[in-house]
Amino acid sequence: MSTDAEAIVVTPVDNARDMRAFIDLPKRLYRGHAGYVPHLDMERRDTFNPAKNPYFQHAQVRFWLARRADRVVGRISAQVDRAHLDRHADATGLFGCMDAEDDPAVYAALLSAAEAWLRDNGMKRIRGPLSLSINEEVGLQIEGFDSRPMLLIPYHPPYAAARVEAQGYAKAKDVVSYDYDVQNAEPTIGRKLIERGGLAGRVKVRTADMKRFDAEVRTLLDIFNDAWSDNWGYVPFTEAEIAVAAKTLKPVVIRDLAIFVDVDGETVAFIVALANLNEALSDLDGKLLPFGWAKLAWRLLVDKPKSARVPLMGVRKKFRNHPLLGAGLAMMAIDALRENGKRIGMKTAELGWILEDNKPTNNIIRSVGGKLYKKHRIYEKALS
Fold first, then answer.
1. Distance between CA 285 and CA 263 in Å, rounded?
2. How far, in Å, CA of 146 to CA of 33, rounded?
3. What is the mean pLDDT of each run of 10 residues along the chain (384 residues)?
4. Distance (Å, rounded) from C-alpha 158 to C-alpha 140?
5. CA separation for the pair 325, 264 (Å, rounded)
6. Fewest 10 Å CB contacts: which of 27, 146, 162, 197?
7. Residue 72 in contact with residue 21, Cβ under 8 Å?
8. Cα–Cα distance between 106 and 1 in angstroms, integer?
9. What spatial distance separates the first Cα and last Cα of the chain, rounded to whole Å?
């Protein structure tokens, strides 16, 4: 392991060749790691492309590569998100997309570049990793390194946390993920809570209407923006981000596992599971050509993933804070997910990420049989 910081050169990504190197680096670093599956290259190109990703409409983003002797040894991004600043007014900039060889000098050089750029843009604090926002891939993995790779959950090797902390970064928040045994979990007490809360006969549980998919996504994100608006770090989805989310999520939304709960005809709660695309991508190395398309289509449509991720669950505020109805509505959604999942052969689901101090949600998930198996950490540092 080298510690020759003078030999490390950090430069901005400013051409297509650099972006290819930026996208390819994690594959070289983590190939063969049990917890890692590469993103699709085309998906990463769209995510990092200002013309394709509406996040860039409200954020400035800079990408860097670290090289030693012309060999790429690390990467990082930094973001100034005006939507975050408008909501929180905390002069906090973000970093993300941080992957590097196990070398403290590389981490020091990368984080120094991100810090300097954020400082030059008026930021007083740096937070991350967020790739690129709080609504995308969140945190640096600190537990569960060998656990099942999961769609939109970032992987980092065990050495990364120590390298970041050595540069003066401290924990801001931990987010956790739970493994839920779809086949063997017990029914919840959700319906009993609803009856005790006075809503007997007024609650309807339904699956998503795929013919009205865009409208269903808007309903889901409207509930999300209401239910999560008090959460730490929350930034609402924009209209453009909602439109892109509808297009992007449709291929991996499982209709039977997209559950809505209506009260008196109003949709007030939901839970949605996405097919774990990583099962189908495990041996494609991020590439769909020449034969990846056929393999991916077969695995999604015929073989079908046996695991799913639940990235979003919410109950409108007017019910969430009720001592019985908030938990009852959430549990009824989970019951429908479990029952439908068993019927279609789904084996496991990952519920996450969830803020470690979100006690109501953590308590609900533990009570229905969720087992904590991954933890990611969001770091902060003051910029002097």
1. 45
2. 8
3. 69 97 96 90 92 96 96 98 97 98 98 98 98 95 94 94 98 97 96 94 94 89 89 91 83 89 96 81 53 47 75 91 92 96 94 94 94 97 94
4. 10
5. 14
6. 146
7. yes
8. 11
9. 30
